[in-house]
Specification:
This protein is about 55% helix and about 15% strand. The protein contains 14 helices and eight strands.
Length: about 325
């Protein structure tokens, strides 16, 4: 579908050699997070032999070796799309425990990108106060960024500003290099990952209309990004899985088919999505606020943004600690 990208929100070593290859006709990118790696490393037999060979190393070193191998493999499988300018990105998140430490986050992001050694890797950074400078610095030196855990419009705006300022600085620094280089230097890409279904799961019991708040909130954030007309920074809709049987598995894909957007979805949603749908026209901000205010109060939405961000940070930290504990 023109101007719409579907990414796979799952990676695992053997999956990348098998089912993922058949999905490449449908998806053009992939994402990972600490919870995905936790489930893969602790539950898949593929990793047992590798873990045994790494015995004696520190738990975080073992985790990183396993994660880096998977990310490199995913990057290689997606490389043909990347070099055809059809996305082809894979994301890896920095240690989630660094979310309030700018220096540690930046150091880890640079180290991971260098260790992986693939152009089509995006470094995932949570949208916290300490991380906006990290996003800016990474874009400035040409590292692709996936700004994650975005719930509020304020987070969205701050992410865009950080990514855009870094991109502008990168372009300024590379004007002469590009002019004299037959092989043009690619500008870095950034995505702003707006979480969707978590809003509905938290607020459905209080809402006058169920399963709409996340979509309307995501539409607002999308409008905020798209109005800036910067093709290298796009909206990515995340947390688009459906829990339970009350909705079609691809509900959050079909409801957010916006031009120049990305949807990173779990496997059941991707398999349910048959494509062939027309792009949707996003609602204008005035319409969105009218609808949202009918369904639930602004105060409830603002409280939800804080609850969801705090919970998201905590859950990723817990998942990371559980990996390290199991590998110790």
């Amino acid at each position: 579908m023109k101007n719409f990208s579907l990414w796979c929100d799952f990676i695992e070593n053997s999956f990348l050699d098998n089912e993922f290859l058949t999905l490449l006709s449908k998806v053009n990118g992939a994402t990972s997070n600490p919870s995905i790696f936790k489930n893969a490393i602790l539950n898949s037999p593929v990793y047992k032999e590798k873990i045994a060979k790494l015995k004696g190393k520190k738990a975080k070193e073992i985790y990183e070796e396993l994660a880096i191998l998977d990310i490199q493999k995913a990057a290689d499988k997606l490389a043909f799309k990347f070099f055809n300018n059809d996305d082809g990105f894979i994301s890896i998140e920095i240690d989630p425990r660094f979310y309030d430490n700018t220096a540690l986050s930046l150091g880890e992001a640079k180290r991971l990108f260098s260790a992986i050694g693939k152009e089509n890797v995006m470094i995932k950074v949570p949208a916290t106060q300490a991380s906006y400078e990290v996003m800016y610095e990474l874009m400035k030196i040409g590292i692709n960024v996936n700004a994650t855990l975005i719930f509020s419009l304020e987070q969205c705006q701050k992410c865009f500003e950080a990514l855009n300022e870094g991109l502008i600085q990168f372009r300024k620094n590379h004007i002469l290099l590009n002019a004299n280089n037959a092989k043009k230097i690619k500008s870095p890409k950034g995505v702003i990952s707006i979480f969707v279904s978590r809003f509905d799961r938290l607020l459905n019991s209080k809402a006058l209309e169920k399963n709409r708040i996340g979509i309307l909130n995501a539409n607002l954030a999308y409008n905020n990004i798209i109005r800036n007309n910067e093709p290298n920074i796009r909206a990515l809709f995340a947390s688009t899985g459906v829990k339970g049987d009350d909705l079609p598995k691809d509900y959050y894909i079909k409801e957010l088919l916006f031009e120049n957007s990305i949807n990173t979805a779990p496997l059941d949603a991707i398999n349910a999505f048959k494509g062939g749908f027309k792009l949707k026209t996003p609602l204008r901000n005035s319409q969105l606020y009218t609808e949202l205010n009918k369904i639930i109060s602004q105060d409830e939405r603002e409280k939800a943004c804080k609850i969801l961000l705090d919970d998201g940070l905590e859950q990723f930290c817990i998942a990371f600690e559980e990996i390290l504990s199991a590998l110790s």
